[in-house]
Amino acid sequence: MKIGVLIxxxxxxxxxxxxxxxxxxxxxxxxxxxxxxxxxxxxxxxATRLSLPPQDERNIQQNWxxxxxxxxxxxxxxxxAAQRRGMLDESEAKRNGKDANNIAEGFRISxxxxxxxMGIQTDRLVTxxx
Length: 130
What we know:
Helix 1 (16-29) runs parallel beside helix 2. With 130 residues, the chain is of the alpha/beta class.
């Protein structure tokens, strides 16, 4: 079964990103395909490369980056939600005249069309967040 995942709550203030990560790893281990995870609203904050949780705590961004590398999961960050929260990749930073970017490796910025495409191309769409 192909499963798409939508995360709409931020890390460290809500369990959505952690629960989604555990769900995706379990789904892949059970033989399901998770081609894409879409980060929306405050969920885009998972993708920042600038978070520094204490060493004895989980690093949600690193967990997702590792999952993307190991299993080829496409991690898509909503461009509008990201820009509202000051999150830019290199191309968006240049395009908007900013001198820095903060999107972590393994994540990419794109539009809502990617969410719609995911809904069409998967058998199920599972949402994490309020």
